[in-house]
Amino acid sequence: MQKITLLINCPDRKGIVTTITQFILERQGNIVYLDQHVDRQESIFFMRVESEFDQEGFSIADFEMQFIAQFVDDYQLTYQLFDAYYKPRLALFVSKYDHCLYDLLGRYASGELPVEIPLIISNHPDLEIVAKRFEIPFKHIAVTKATKAEAEAEQIAAIKEHKIDLIVLARYMQIISDDFVAQFKNKIINIHHSFLPAFIGAKPYHAAFERGVKIIGATSHYVTADLDEGPIIEQEIVRVSHVHSVQDFILKGRDLEKIVLARAIKAHVEHKVLVFGNKTVIFS
Amino acid sequence: MQKITLLINCPDRKGIVTTITQFILERQGNIVYLDQHVDRQESIFFMRVESEFDQEGFSIADFEMQFIAQFVDDYQLTYQLFDAYYKPRLALFVSKYDHCLYDLLGRYASGELPVEIPLIISNHPDLEIVAKRFEIPFKHIAVTKATKAEAEAEQIAAIKEHKIDLIVLARYMQIISDDFVAQFKNKIINIHHSFLPAFIGAKPYHAAFERGVKIIGATSHYVTADLDEGPIIEQEIVRVSHVHSVQDFILKGRDLEKIVLARAIKAHVEHKVLVFGNKTVIFS
Amino acid sequence: MQKITLLINCPDRKGIVTTITQFILERQGNIVYLDQHVDRQESIFFMRVESEFDQEGFSIADFEMQFIAQFVDDYQLTYQLFDAYYKPRLALFVSKYDHCLYDLLGRYASGELPVEIPLIISNHPDLEIVAKRFEIPFKHIAVTKATKAEAEAEQIAAIKEHKIDLIVLARYMQIISDDFVAQFKNKIINIHHSFLPAFIGAKPYHAAFERGVKIIGATSHYVTADLDEGPIIEQEIVRVSHVHSVQDFILKGRDLEKIVLARAIKAHVEHKVLVFGNKTVIFS
Amino acid sequence: MQKITLLINCPDRKGIVTTITQFILERQGNIVYLDQHVDRQESIFFMRVESEFDQEGFSIADFEMQFIAQFVDDYQLTYQLFDAYYKPRLALFVSKYDHCLYDLLGRYASGELPVEIPLIISNHPDLEIVAKRFEIPFKHIAVTKATKAEAEAEQIAAIKEHKIDLIVLARYMQIISDDFVAQFKNKIINIHHSFLPAFIGAKPYHAAFERGVKIIGATSHYVTADLDEGPIIEQEIVRVSHVHSVQDFILKGRDLEKIVLARAIKAHVEHKVLVFGNKTVIFS
C-alpha cells in the first residue's frame, strides 16, 4: 500500500474537483480524505487530498509526472506532493529556555509526533544535558555579531548533512538572517510568545503586563524576512488578571508556547498547512 | 440566479465525489462550497454542496427528480435538498425565562438570522410583552397534566397553520410528548443548561454547584423521545470558581444558553447540520 | 439595612487590613465581602470591601466623614464609597450598529443589569425604533466636523439633565473629544472590536483578516484621550480559520462585542473595577 | 527570613479577618498575601494568608502553638500551616501511558514545580526508561487481584520511606483500595480523562465519541473512596468535531490531561487548595 498527500492551489475553475478526483480514480486511487476551500474574494481554489494505492507497480514518481503534465500549466496550478509514510526530519534550534525542548522531546519519545529528530542546534551549551537524556545529537554553535555569517554557514551545513526537512525555533533567541530564511522558505517554524500582531519584538510578556491585558497568547508562524510577520499557523490564549505578575505571565505563557508550537509542527508534518501569500490554509 | 444546498450521506464508495460534482457540472452548476467527510469506522460518506445555477429555465424540481433517479437507489443515498434563498420559518416555544427570547429576537431584528419568526408559543402569558415589542404573534397555550394532549394538538395546529420549518425550545419548561417529537424529527432544537451528558434533567446548575465543578456549560441538541439524549449540535463552556454561588452559575449560564442556542439555529437554518444516528456532522 | 461598597488603594503598609476591617467592625458593620490585592512591584495596596449595617440611625455620610478623617491623609489613601443599593444611571451612545444595543436592552429588560437606562444618544436617527421598543428616551444629535463642539455640548447637557453615572459607547462611531473625555474620567466605557493592542483604529476585522490571525477578539476599556489606549476592563476571543471571510469575522465578532461590553458594564456598576495608572484591578 | 502559609476555615463570625491579621501583626509578621472567601449559604469562612517573619529567633512551632491556643477551640477553626520554603515530596504513580510522566518530569527538570520527586512507582516495568532519563528512582510493583493487598503494603512502605507528601496518579491504571485512600486523605491527586461528572469510569474518550459531544475535557481531583467522585481541583476542555475519530479524541486529550494535572499539582504544592466537604476552594 502506498499513500500520497497532495496540496494544491490554483485559480478557481468550474469542474476542478471533478477533474482531479477523476485523475486519481483512473489510477485506482482510493480517496480517504478530501478537503477543499475556495477563497471567493481572490477566486483561488485550495485542496488537500489523501489517496491510497494498493496495486503492484504503482509509482509515486510516475503519478507526479503525469499529474504535472495534465494540470500544472493548464490550470496554473501549484502543488506539493508527499509520500504520506515518510517521516519528516526536524532540526530543533534552542538557546537557554528548556520548556519547549522538553515538551517536544517528550512528545517525540511518546510517539506522538510522526517525525525524526536527528539534530538539536544551540547557540549556548546549556541544554546539551536535555539532548543527552533523549539521546539526540546536540551541536553547540556560538553566535556573535562578528561570527554570525560563519555560524549560519555551519548551521546550514549541519542541516544539509542531516537531510533536515523542517527547522523548529523552539525559543531560539537569535534572529535568523534573510539569506538563511530565503533558503528555507516555509520550512522554519517559530514560536512567538505573544498573541501576534500584538507585542511584536522582544519581551512581549513584559509589554502585555504593562498594557494591562486580560488575556495573553502565543503564536506559531513560518519565519520570513520580516520579524514576527510571517504566516500564522496557530494561536492560543489564556486568561490573566491583576493578581498575576510578569513572572506569572511568563509561567502561564510556557504552556501556551509548548502547545502552540507542538500543534503547528504537527499540522506541518501531516501536510495540513498550505501557505498562500502571507496566510495559511489549515486543513482539518 | 438560483442556489441549491445539498446534504448527502450514503455508504462510502470510490469515485462518489467525482460522480456527484460531475452531475452538477453537467447542469451548468457552479459549485461554490463543497465539504465532505468520511466516517472511516462506519464507512459512511457525508457531503454538503452549494451550487449556483444562472441559466434561464433551470428548475430545482427537475434537478431533484434527476438527482433521485441517478443516485438514491444506486448509491443507497439519503439526501436533503434546499432552495438556499428560502428563509426557514421558526416557532419559538418559551415559558417564563426571557433571556433566550430577547437574544433571538434581537438577532432576528438585526438581520443576523436568515429566518422568519411568525409565531411564539408559551405555556405562560408572561412573555407576551416581549413578543409585542418585536411585533410577533404570541400564542398562550396553557399546559397541565390533564390538558397536555389538547394543548399539544393546539400547538401542532398553529405550527401547521404558520408553515413552521423549525421549532425552537428557548428555555421552554415542558416536556414534549413522544408523539409530538415523532412528528418533527430533527426539527425541534432545545437548549439544555448543562454540558451534556453531565447533569441531565432538572436543575443542572444546582447539580453542578453541588458537584463543585470548575467549568459549566450549555448544550443545544435535537429533541428525541429520550430526554436530553438527542443529537448534540453545539456546546460551549465558561469557567466558574468557589466564589460563585448557584445564582452566579445561573447568571453566567444565561450567556452560554443564548450563544449556544443561536449558533445551533444558525447552523440548522444554513443547512450545515446533518444528523446521522444520534450524532451530528456540522459542516463549516 | 444599608450596604456600602468601598474601593481603596494606597501605599502598602503593615496592618492595613486589620485597621480598616477594625474601623468597619467598630461601626457594627458586617463584612460580607473582602478582597485585597497587593501590587508587590509598586508596593500598592488595593481593597474592595462590602459591609452591611443594620442599626437604626446609621448614616453613610457620617461613615464617609469618619473614614476620611481616619485614613485619607494618614495612609495617602484614595477611596471610592458607594451605596450598594443605588442603581447607576447609564447613557448609551450608539450609531447604526444595533446588536450591542439590542443586547444591552434585552439584559436590562430581563433585570440582569442593576442599572437605570434613562437615555440613548445617537448621531444617527436609525436606531430610534429600537429605543421605542424598549420605551427609552432617544436623543438624535447629529455630529459633523463643523458641529462637533456644539453636538458634544448638547450631549453633555443631556447627560447632566439625566444625572448619568456611566456613558457606554455601544459601537458609537465618533471619536470623543479630549475635553469631553476629561469631564468623565473612568466613566466612559467603549467596546473595541479587536483584541487590543492588536488592530488599533478603524476596521480591525479587516486588518485581522489581512494578517491571517487564527483568533479574533474584542476589548472593553475606559475611554482616555489616547484612542484605544485606555485601561482594559475585559477581553474575550473566538477562533477563526481560513474558511471565514471578513463578513464571518464581523458576524462572529458581534457576539464577542456584546458579551465583552456587557461584562465590563456589569463589573463597573457592581463597583468591582479599580483603575490604577492605565490598568484595572477587577475584583471577583 | 521565614515564611508561613496558613489555610483556615471555620464558621463565619464578625471580625475574624481583623483578629487573625492582628495576631500575625503582633508577631511582627508582614502579610504578603491574603485572600478570604465566605460561603454565604453555609456561613463558612475560608482564608489563605502568607506572612513573612524576619526577626531573629522567630519559631514556626511557637507560632503554631500560640495560634492553636488562641483560635482552634474558640473559633471551631480548622487550619493547615505550612513552611512556605519547604518543598513537598511527590511520588508519581504510573502504568504504561508516558505523556503525563514526561510532562511532569520536564516541568520538574525545568524548575517549574517547587517540589522534590524522589520516587516513581509503576505496576508495569515499561516506563523505567523514562525515570532513568531523569535520574529518578523507579520502583516496579506488580499488582494483580491476588497480590493487591501486598502490593499496596509495599507501595505504602516506599511512600513512608521516602517521606512522600503527595501522591500523583499520572494515568495510573489501577484502582486504589479504600484502606490506602483513607491513609492519604486529600493527598492523592488523580487525572481523569473526561469532563467529570460526564463519562465516569473506564474509556471516557470512547464514551464521549459515542455520545457525539462537541467538547471534551479532563479533570484533576483528590481521590476518595468513591471512584471519580472526589473533590475537583481543575478542569479544562478542548473542542472536537465530527472529523475527529476516537484516536483524535485520545490524542487531543493528552494535552488536556498534562495541563490539568500539572495545574492541580501546582495549586496543591503552593497550598492554594482547601478541601471542604466534597468541594475545593482554590485561592488565586
Short structural description:
Chains A, B, C, D: Its EC number is 3.5.1.10. 4 copies of one chain form a homotetramer. Chain A is α/β, with parallel strands linked by helices and 284 residues long.
Record the SSE blueprint.
The structure is a homotetramer.
Chain A: E1 2-11, H1 16-26, E2 30-39, E3 44-53, H2 60-72, E4 78-83, E5 89-94, H3 99-110, E6 116-122, H4 128-133, E7 138-140, H5 148-161, E8 166-169, H6 178-183, E9 188-192, H7 204-211, E10 215-222, E11 232-239, H8 246-269, E12 273-276, E13 279-282
Parallel strand pairs in A: 5-6, 5-8, 6-7, 8-9
Antiparallel strand pairs in A: 1-3, 1-4, 2-3, 9-10, 10-11, 12-13
Helix pairs in contact in A: 3-8
Tell me what you see in this structure.
- The structure is a homotetramer of 284-residue chains.
- Chain A is of the alpha/beta class.
- Chain A has 2 domains: 2-83, Alpha-Beta Plaits (2-Layer Sandwich), CATH 3.30.70; 89-282, 3-Layer(aba) Sandwich (Rossmann fold), CATH 3.40.50.
- Chain A has helices at residues 16-26, 60-72, 99-110, 128-133, 148-161, 178-183, 204-211, 246-269, and strands at residues 2-11, 30-39, 44-53, 78-83, 89-94, 116-122, 138-140, 166-169, 188-192, 215-222, 232-239, 273-276, 279-282.
- In chain A, the strands form 3 sheets. Chain A has a 7-stranded mixed beta sheet with strand order 7-6-5-8-9-10-11, with helices on both faces. A 4-stranded antiparallel beta sheet of chain A has the order 2-3-1-4, with helices on one face.
- In chain A, helix 6 (178-183) links the parallel strand 8 (166-169) and strand 9 (188-192).
- In chain A, helix 3 (99-110) runs parallel beside helix 8 (246-269).
- Chain A starts with a strand and ends with a strand.
- Chains A, B, C, D: The active site is at 228.
- Chains A, B, C, D: One of its GO terms (molecular function) is formyltetrahydrofolate deformylase activity.
- Chains A, B, C, D: This is Formyltetrahydrofolate deformylase.
